[in-house]
DNA sequence: CTTGAACCTCCAGTAGCTTGAGGATGTAGG
DNA sequence: CCTACATCCTCAAGCTACTGGAGGTTCAAG
C-alpha cells in the first residue's frame, strides 16, 4: 500500500496533482486509513502511470479520459483510440513546424544582435517587421 | 482610424483579446468616439502586430512586455533583448526535442494499431506500458 | 511519548485568453 | 430621416491543468 507521496514519487507526479485528478474524477477515490489518509494499490499506480505518460505525450485530460474509458471496455474496436492518436499526431506535426520556424527566426535574431544599441537590434526589428516573418500567421496552438 | 474589429482583422487577433491586452496594460488605452467606441491608429497597429508576432514565436506576455519597454528606449544596449531571445531559443530547442520524441511515439502507435479490438490495440498498450516509453520522464513544459 | 515529516481540506491564484448577458452605437439602404 | 443590424460596449464568469499556501491532523521512528 502506497501513500500519496510514495505514489507521486513513483510516477513523477506531484501530490496535489493526484488529488486534483481525484477531484475531477480521473483517478478513483482510494481507500483511506483510519485517520483519513489515502492509500493506493497497484491498480492506481498503473492508472496514474497511464495518465502521466499520456500527458507527456501531449494528450489533453479529456482525451485521456476517453482512452481510459476505452481501455475499460476491451471488446470494442480500437478505431476510436486510433483516431485520438491520429488527431494528436496531426497537432504535434503542426506544432513542430511552427517551432522549427521559430527556432530559425530566433537563431537569426541572436546571431544578428551583435551588442549594439537597442535601436540597431535585430531582435526587436524582426518582431516589429512583418515582412521578415518566416512563420505563417495562424493560431498559436495549445 | 480603425475600429477594434478592423484592427483585429488586420492583425489576425480577436476583438476580445485586444481588449484583454488593454486591460493588462500591454496595449494603451486608445482614443474613443463620442459614443465610446475604440478607434486605433498606425502606432497601435504596429504595437499589436509586434505582440501577435512575438506570441506566435512563443514569447510569454511578460517577455513581450519587457521587449516593448526596451523598444520604447532605443538608446539602451540591446543585451537585454538579446538575452530574452537566447532564453527563448533554449526553451524552443527543448520543446522541439520533446515534440520530436513524441511524434516518433505517436507514429508508432498509429502504425501498429491495425484495426483490431481495443484489447490488442497498441495505442493503449504503449500508454499503459512504461518500458516502451521513448520519451524521458521530465516535466511537461509550458 | 515525542518529534517532525508527511498528510489532510479548503481556498485562491496562475496564464492567456474565451464566452455570454444585456445593452448601446454606427452606418448603409430605403 | 428612419430603420435595421452588424458591430461595439462593460462586466463577470469560465476554461485548462495545475500550483501554492494556510492552518490543522496523522503516522512512524526513536
From TrEMBL, chains A, B:
Locate the HTH merR-type domain: which residues?
A: 1-70
Q: Which spans of this chain does the record mark as coiled coil?
A: 82-112
Alphabetical list of SMART domains matching this protein: HTH_MERR
Q: Which PROSITE patterns does the protein's record reference?
A: HTH_MERR_2 (PS50937)
Q: List the Gene3D superfamilies.
A: 1.10.1660.10
Is Coiled coil a UniProt keyword of this protein? Answer: yes
Name one matching Pfam family.
Answer: MerR
InterPro entries recorded: DNA-bd_dom_put_sf, MerR-type_HTH_dom, MerR_fam, Tscrpt_reg_MerR_DNA-bd
Keywords of this protein's UniProt record, alphabetized? Coiled coil, DNA-binding, Transcription, Transcription regulation
Keyword Lipid metabolism tagged: no
Q: Which GO terms describe its molecular function?
A: DNA binding; DNA-binding transcription factor activity
User: Under what name is this protein listed?
Assistant: Transcriptional regulator
Q: Which organism is it from?
A: Aurantimonas manganoxydans (strain ATCC BAA-1229 / DSM 21871 / SI85-9A1)
